Amino acid sequence: MSDTVEKTDDGAIVYDTAILNQISPTTFTQAGWEMVTRIGGELRSAGRGNTLLVSDGQQEFVLRHYVRGGLPGKIIRDTYFWTGEHQTRSFAEWYLLAKLTKLGLPVPRPAAARYCRRGLFYSADLLTVRVPGICSLADRIIAQPCDRNFWHSIGAGLRRFHNAGVYHADLNAYNVQVDERDRLYLLDFDRGRLLEPGIWRQKNIARLHRSLKKIKQLDRRVNFSRADWNEMLEAYFSESRSP
User: How open is the CA angle 107-97-235, to the nearest 5 degrees?
Assistant: First the structure.
């Protein structure tokens, strides 16, 4: 990857010149693309706000505008307190994804990120290369029951991230994604970071478990059982014992 930072009138843009040979503020708007589709369905985990599938006719990308969730989002929708360029949500996630990509971990490849500063506050956007043919774990287990090998692959895949010290701030059944061959990908690394081994690993896995149980309660079509979870845990801990 080759990252280049360009200053703008109100902020800056970082981008991978191996993916994009030119960049401008319009790259982060609908007007900057030939084809634009609002994301829903299997990719709804890609963000709480305006998340778009965009294309220049050759490559497809996911464009996400950062917005707040919960109660703060009802008051201040899409601005954050300025603490420095590399602390912006977009730059932090871009550089983390770049590191994970170099490690060979299954994440979307970062293409570009920007922030727009206004005094003590800023807004931000992130552009990633679309991973073709993926769907959320939630949608996958609604579509059909999953066998032992499937849950083992999920557990082993998650342990691979944890062994690399990858903390995902919102590990749930929507940010865990699988492709057409049921290979695991993780999306949405906003507030993610690299950490030393610790209790955060167990908390990460517990968060995913709560998410799976919640969607099971909300939708009777969900194919998920205690046995499935135990299969996943078996693979997760087996992977941790591997040399």
Answer: 45
Q: How far apart are CA 16 and CA 194, in angstroms?
A: 21
Residue 125 pairs in a beta bridge with 65, 114
Residue 116, pLDDT score = 98
Residues that are catalytic: 170
Indicate the pLDDT class of residue 66, thresholds 50, 70 and 90: very high
CATH superfamily of the domain spanning 135-240: Transferase(Phosphotransferase) domain 1 (1.10.510.10)
Cβ–Cβ < 8 Å for 8, 117: no
For 5, other C-beta atoms within 10 Å of its C-beta total 11
Render pLDDT for 94-138 as a digit per residue (tens, 0 to 9): 999 999 999 999 999 999 999 999 999 999 999 999 999 999 999
Only one residue has tokens 């969730």, namely: 69
Of the candidates 54, 74, 78, which has an alpha carbon nearest to the alpha carbon of residue 66?
Answer: 78
Residues facing 16 on adjacent strands:
3
Q: How far is CA 127 from the centre of its chain?
A: 11
**Gyration radius from the chain CA atoms:** 18
Query: For the sheet containing 176-178, what is the strand order?
Result: 135-136, 176-178, 184-186
pLDDT at 242: 53
Give 213: exposed, middle or buried? Use CB within 10 Å, 0-12, 13-18, 19+.
middle
